[in-house]
Amino acid sequence: MRHIPTLIGAGLVAAATASAIAVGVGGAQAPADQTLTFVERTVPAADVFADVPPLSKTLASGGDTYLFRNDVLGATGAAKVGSHEARCTYLKATPRGIGSRLICDGVYTLQDGTIAATTAFTFTQHPKIDFVVTGGSGAYEGAQGSGTLTYRPGKNNPLADTTIHLLP
């Protein structure tokens, strides 16, 4: 079950350091759009699975919740620049995970603030998860926008590429 929640790192939702930020040019009176890019790496020891009735040691079911933390690395994947913590709840679970439906909300904690995000998605073999930026703090206060988290191929690959587009 670890692979499913790792792919959720949906959930969710994203940010990076100044060295990983590409800033678009905006008009004189409007702040600029920002595109943040980084790499996420799963932290297996940080996973928590909460099983609600009907209880099962091997299968997830609707209502079960998964908590996780990913390290957020700069765009090159070299240095840690923050963390991504999220909570995902199964709306529908399948025995092997593929086809499971989840809803997730999470927070990216970076050096200059936080970015909050949410998503609902159906788990696939090599997921690309789209999410909505719902707010932030510090440098990201009032943030709005969207993002994509794409897990890299390969069995048990702990890396994902994340892009967040913040609106002005």
Write the SSE topology:
Blueprint: H1 3-8, E1 21-23, E2 34-42, E3 48-50, E4 65-73, E5 80-92, E6 101-110, E7 113-122, E8 128-138, E9 145-151, E10 159-166
Antiparallel strand pairs: 1-2, 2-4, 2-10, 3-4, 4-5, 5-6, 6-7, 7-8, 8-9, 9-10
Compose a concise summary of this entry.
By secondary structure, the protein is mainly beta. The protein has one helix at residues 3-8, and strands at residues 21-23, 34-42, 48-50, 65-73, 80-92, 101-110, 113-122, 128-138, 145-151, 159-166. The protein has a single domain (3-166), classed as Allene oxide cyclase-like (AOC barrel-like).
- Would you state the CATH class? Mainly Beta
The total strand number stands at 10
CATH architecture: Beta Barrel
State the order of secondary-structure elements, H for helix, E for strand: HEEEEEEEEEE
CATH superfamily: Allene oxide cyclase-like
Q: How much helicity do the residues have?
A: under 10%
Please supply descriptive tags for the structure shown above.
168 residues; mainly beta; AOC barrel-like; eight-stranded antiparallel barrel; 1 helix; globular; disordered N terminus
Can you put this structure into words, describing what you see?
With 168 residues, the protein is mostly beta strands. It is 4% helix and 49% strand. It has one domain: AOC barrel-like. It has one helix spanning 3-8, and strands at residues 21-23, 34-42, 48-50, 65-73, 80-92, 101-110, 113-122, 128-138, 145-151, 159-166. It has an 8-stranded antiparallel β-barrel. Strand 9 (145-151) and strand 10 (159-166) form a beta hairpin. The longest helix has 6 residues, at 3-8. 38% of the residues are buried. Mean pLDDT is 81; it is low at 1-30.
